[in-house]
Write a structure and sequence with these properties.
The complex is a heterodimer of chains A (117) and B (301). With 117 residues, chain A is mainly alpha-helical. Chain A has one domain. Helix content of chain A is 90%, strand content 0%. The longest helix of chain A is centred in the middle third of the chain and has 80 residues. Chain B is an all-alpha fold. Chain B contains nine helices and two strands; from the N terminus they run αααααββαααα. The longest helix of chain B is centred in the middle third of the chain and has 71 residues. The chains are: A mainly alpha (117), B mainly alpha (301). Chains A and B meet through helix 1 and helix 3 of A and helix 3, helix 4, helix 5 and helix 6 of B.
Chain lengths: 117, 301
């Protein structure tokens, strides 16, 4: 059964990373130093191509996730708005309690003054 | 000036008697405190995302520069060198744009968690109860007969002091549950993707760091050993350093684990059973991430 494309990409980039790491190793360099100049140049170009392929595939994967996150942004914004609306209702209760308390404090003073008069 | 003050009427009593029903409606959801804990941890994790992305980009550039300098030793043609440098720069710039978008997005997700946390925060509700009692106390000063009125066997003021925070708490629970019901799919998807981002970055950083360490080990450990002549004085320390996991990789691995636990905690919250156990694990994971990210921010020796 063929692998899904995502799994193929994952396996490919893992192979490329392993190749890049191997091309930095002591064992590789020992062999590299025995090659004729033209083959050394080919090997150097191959290292660069492997590295670029890794970075491009990594960018593609990140971009794909980024695009899906961006698609979620409207719903997230709606969630924030809805939470803020609920918070505002609680704030209104607090403001009303405070305002009523302050009003009644004034009324209580007026009532006392009227009672003394 | 004449004022008519009313004692609690039948309609006021009916509203208060509806309180238990209101509370029952809130019963189906986890307590606000679990939402508050979840939101706090979500905020801490999203705060860690920008420094992790920054560390990941620095590793990518380090490895890229290393590869360019390795091939430069062999490829001496200026035009070819310039072409390689330009190609590398283009790919890195593309990554920087993507990281910028991910950073911006993490700030939006953070706003969501912060707002969720504010709605779930019941710490100010007892002050509302005090405020409500204060109103009744003031009314008693104006109309002393009110001091004889009772509700549920308690003085009106004392009843309201207890009932108001409970009612506000129930309102919070209902509002939070409503938000969960409306946004469960979005937030689950969001947390899935956050985990995917952190896992992808962990894999990239691991690849970059392993490549760089391979080259550094070759130059600093293997070649001095293979060459004739004495070994450098710090050769053992170099080996020790090479065998340890770099802190940047520890941090991003911890973040990927924490984001998985954040997702698990959210699913537990949506299922209504509460997220107690998974929140405890999440707290541990997020603490690890925060500690490591703080260490990342310190300048390297």
């Amino acid at each position: 059964m063929p692998l899904p494309p995502a799994d193929i990409r994952k396996a490919t980039v893992e192979e490329l990373r392993a190749a890049r790491k191997a091309m930095m190793s002591t064992e590789w360099m020992e062999n590299f130093n025995t090659l004729p100049e033209s083959e050394q140049k080919d090997a150097a170009r191959l290292l660069f191509q492997v590295h670029q392929a890794i970075h491009k595939m990594e960018n593609a994967k990140l971009a794909d996730i980024r695009d899906k996150l961006v698609a979620n942004e409207k719903a997230l914004g709606d969630g924030i708005a809805s939470l803020k609306a609920a918070l505002k209702k609680i704030e209104k209760i607090a403001a009303a309690i405070k305002a009523i308390g302050q009003f009644l404090a004034i009324v209580a003073r007026v009532v006392k003054l009227v009672a003394k008069a | 000036m004449s004022m008519q003050l009313r004692f609690p009427t039948k309609s006021h009593c009916r509203s208060l008697l509806l309180l238990p029903i209101f509370l029952l409606a809130a019963c189906g959801s986890p307590p606000p405190s679990q939402f508050a804990d979840f939101a706090k941890l979500g905020t801490a994790l999203t705060d860690s995302t920008p420094p992790l992305l920054d560390a990941a980009f620095r590793e990518a550039v380090k490895t890229d520069s290393l590869v360019l300098s390795e091939v430069r030793n062999t490829l001496t043609d200026r035009a070819e060198r310039l072409s390689m440098l330009n190609d590398s720069n283009a790919v890195l710039k593309e990554r920087l744009v993507i990281y910028g978008d991910l950073t911006r997005h993490s700030r939006l997700l953070r706003s969501y968690f912060v707002t969720l946390g504010l709605l779930a925060d019941t710490s100010g509700d007892s002050a509302l109860g005090d405020g409500a009692k204060g109103i009744v106390d003031q009314l008693q000063n104006i109309h002393p007969k009110l001091s004889e009125a009772q509700l549920g066997g308690a003085a009106v003021g004392d009843f309201l002091k207890g009932a108001v925070p409970v009612a506000v708490g129930a309102f919070r629970s209902i509002a939070l549950k409503r938000e969960l019901d409306a946004r469960a799919e979005t937030i689950t998807s969001e947390l899935d993707l956050q985990q995917a981002v952190l896992t992808a970055i962990a894999e990239q950083m691991r690849g970059d760091i392993e490549t760089r360490l391979e080259q550094e080990n070759r130059e600093r450990i293997d070649e001095p050993y293979l060459d004739s002549g004495s070994l450098p004085g710090d050769w053992n320390e170099r080996r020790l350093e090479s065998l340890r996991t770099p802190i940047t990789l520890e941090a991003v691995d911890a973040a990927a684990r924490a984001s998985e636990n954040l997702r698990t905690s959210f699913i537990a919250l949506t299922e209504g059973g509460g997220a107690g156990g998974s929140l405890a694990q999440l707290l541990q994971d997020v603490s690890t991430v925060v500690t490591l990210v703080e260490a990342l921010k310190k300048p390297m020796p």
